[in-house]
Specification:
With about 325 residues, the chain is mainly alpha-helical. It is about 75% helix and about 0% strand. The chain has one domain.
C-alpha cells in the first residue's frame, strides 16, 4: 500500500511537479503561501499536470478506442436488448468520444442501423459522462474511491436513463432523416502503425479542442481556492444546504466544457467545503447536459423525447448529488 501510495502521489498527483513549481515561484520572490503566490502555484501546477496526464491518457485510450470503431460497436450492440444490452452500451460509451456533441453523429448512426432507443440513449449518456481518461484524472486530483464512485454513478445514470427512455416507446419521436441516414459498414482492421497514428492524431485534436477550457477551469479554480472565502462558498453551496445540488446542476447546464476543464473547479470547491455530491452534480451537468449538445440533439429528436431525456438525466444527477452529499464522509 505504501508503494501504491507513493506511485499515486508521484505519477498521478505529480507531487514532484508541485514541489518544483513551488520552488520556482519562491525563486522569483513570490511567497507560495500568499494569495497571489498560491494562485500562481495552483494555476501553473494544475495546467502542466493536466496537460501531461491528458496527453498520455488520451494516447492510451485512443489506442484502445481504435479497436472499437463505430461500425464494430454497432455490430456488438446489434440484436441485443434488456438491461445487459444497456449496460454494454454504457460500458462501450466509456471508450468513445470525449464530449457530448461528438457523440451525436454516432447516436444517429446507431439509430439509423435500427438499434433500440434504450441502447442508443445509454450510449449517448455514458459517452461524454464517463471515460477512462477522466477516471485517472479524477484519481490524480481527489482519490481512487471518488474516481471509481464517479464511474459507477455515471454508468448507473446511463443504464437507468436509457432503460426508462426505451420503455417510454417514443421511437416515433426521432426525426425522419435519422432513420434514413446512410449506415457505413467499413470496419477494416488497422495496422499497428495506423493505430499509433490514430492515437497521436486524437491527442492533437482533443488537446487543441479542450485547452481553452482547461485554462479557464484552472483559472477559476485558482480564484476560488485562494481568493473566495470558504464561508461565502459554504453559505451558497455548503453540504447542509438543500438547494446546493439543484443550483450546481443548473449552473453546469449552460457551460460547454469537457470534464478536464471542470476538474480544477471541482477540486477548489471541495477544498472550500462544498459537498462531494454537489460537485459531482456540477460535473455531470456540464458533461451530459451542456447547452450545445441539447441544441444538437433537438435537431435529431422531437421535443417530447428531448424533454424526457432531459428529465431523466437531470433527475438522475439530482438524486446522485443528494445521495453523495449524505455519504461524503465515506470518501473524504
Amino acid at each position: 500500500m505504501n508503494i501504491f501510495g507513493w506511485l499515486n502521489d508521484q505519477l498521478l498527483r505529480m507531487q514532484w511537479l508541485s514541489d518544483l513549481v513551488t520552488a520556482g515561484i519562491s525563486a522569483t520572490g513570490l511567497d507560495p503561501t500568499s494569495r497571489i503566490g498560491g494562485s500562481v502555484q495552483f494555476f501553473v501546477y494544475d495546467v502542466i499536470k493536466i496537460f501531461i496526464l491528458l496527453s498520455v491518457l488520451i494516447f492510451a485510450v485512443s489506442y484502445v478506442q481504435s479497436f472499437f470503431p463505430p461500425e464494430r460497436t454497432r455490430r456488438i450492440l446489434g440484436g441485443r436488448s434488456g438491461i445487459w444490452a444497456n449496460t454494454l452500451a454504457a460500458l462501450l460509451g466509456t471508450i468513445t468520444p470525449f464530449c457530448s456533441c461528438s457523440s451525436i453523429p454516432i447516436f444517429i448512426g446507431f439509430t439509423a442501423a435500427g438499434l433500440p432507443l434504450a441502447i442508443t440513449f445509454s450510449f449517448l449518456i455514458s459517452s461524454p459522462l464517463v471515460d477512462l481518461a477522466s477516471v485517472i484524472l479524477l484519481a490524480s486530483i481527489f482519490n481512487w474511491p471518488i474516481a471509481l464512485a464517479y464511474v459507477v454513478v455515471g454508468l448507473v445514470v446511463a443504464v437507468v436513463g436509457g432503460t426508462l427512455i426505451g420503455r417510454a416507446g417514443m421511437e416515433d419521436q426521432v426525426a425522419d432523416f435519422v432513420h434514413s441516414a446512410p449506415v457505413q459498414d467499413t470496419d477494416h482492421a488497422m495496422t499497428r502503425a495506423e493505430r499509433l497514428g490514430f492515437a497521436r492524431d486524437q491527442v492533437a485534436e482533443i488537446v487543441h479542442r479542450v485547452w481553452p477550457y482547461v485554462l479557464i477551469g484552472v483559472g477559476i479554480g485558482a480564484l476560488i481556492h485562494n481568493w473566495v472565502p470558504a464561508n461565502i462558498i459554504t453559505a451558497l453551496l455548503g453540504q447542509d444546504k438543500w438547494w446546493s445540488v439543484p443550483v450546481a446542476t443548473l449552473v453546469g447546464i449552460p457551460m460547454y466544457a469537457d470534464i478536464f476543464g471542470t476538474l480544477p473547479i471541482a477540486e477548489a470547491l471541495v477544498g472550500k467545503g462544498v459537498g462531494l455530491g454537489t460537485v459531482l452534480a456540477f460535473m455531470m451537468a456540464v458533461t451530459a447536459l451542456s447547452l450545445p449538445s441539447i441544441i444538437m440533439l433537438k435537431r435529431v429528436v422531437n421535443m417530447p423525447l428531448l424533454v424526457l431525456f432531459l428529465t431523466v438525466v437531470t433527475g438522475g444527477i439530482l438524486g446522485i448529488g443528494v445521495l453523495f452529499n449524505a455519504i461524503t464522509d465515506w470518501f473524504i
